[in-house]
What we know:
Blueprint: E1 9-15, E2 18-25, E3 28-31, H1 32-53, E4 62-66, H2 72-80, E5 85-88, H3 91-97, E6 106-109, H4 118-124, E7 128-132, H5 135-148, E8 152-158, H6 171-183, E9 187-194, H7 206-222, E10 229-231, H8 238-243, E11 248-251, H9 253-256
Parallel strand pairs: 4-5, 4-11, 5-6, 6-7, 7-8, 8-9, 9-10
Antiparallel strand pairs: 1-2, 2-3
Amino acid sequence: MPPAFFAEKKIAVRQDGVTLRIYIWGERWYDSGMYIRNQLGEIRAAIAEAEKRAGRAAGSVKLLAVSKTFPVSDIMQAYADGQRLFGENRLQESMEKMPEMPQDCEWHLIGPLQRNKVRKALEQGFGLIQAVDSMKLAAAISRIAGELGKTAAILLEVNVDGEESKHGFTAAELETLWEELVALPHLEIRGLMCIPAPVDDPQDARPAFAALRELAEQLRARGPLPLPELSMGMSHDFAVAVEEGATIVRVGSAIFGRRSYA
């Protein structure tokens, strides 16, 4: 939902076949479609500025709009404003939304994936499964992709902070398991992703982003994979991630507004 100060009351209207949520605060009207349009423009501009600061080519970073918990009407508004790349955290939610969207959307699964749901995820047709966090999960995806006659594109999730409570390979585990991972058939390992520990100051996330970039460079040097993708950075710190080499930034609330989990 949009920022709380707009959300005391709401109504829904239809416009060009899309339901837009109109939020009212006193005499002020707040159109969620206008909010999404404005936010997308600002975020795209901020990405372009970060690319320029880092000396990177314009358009080298892809914006992944994280649409978890938001209705199809909001996702359609982003689509109308040119967004085609979307990310969902939950498999069941994605299975409900994806058929409702135009076919030229690309979808990434960015949340944890249980091994017993791998087949459904592969059948769903995600362009990329981002959070492959263990050898067992990678092996399960490889096996089931082979059974389905597919090659699954994945990213390996790295626990850059080394916290025991977090998902992902540690850098040491990934270096040890690298040969086994690249030998798995029916997988296209496109790169790495991370979710650093939450920080108040986006600059405090820079060491984690730099660590992921450096790990990718080390793995590229070992071969044989080019690992072109680095998925890192979210709504509060994506600009810093771009400066440190992100090729995909995952932005949700900064596009669609504050989430409601009710």
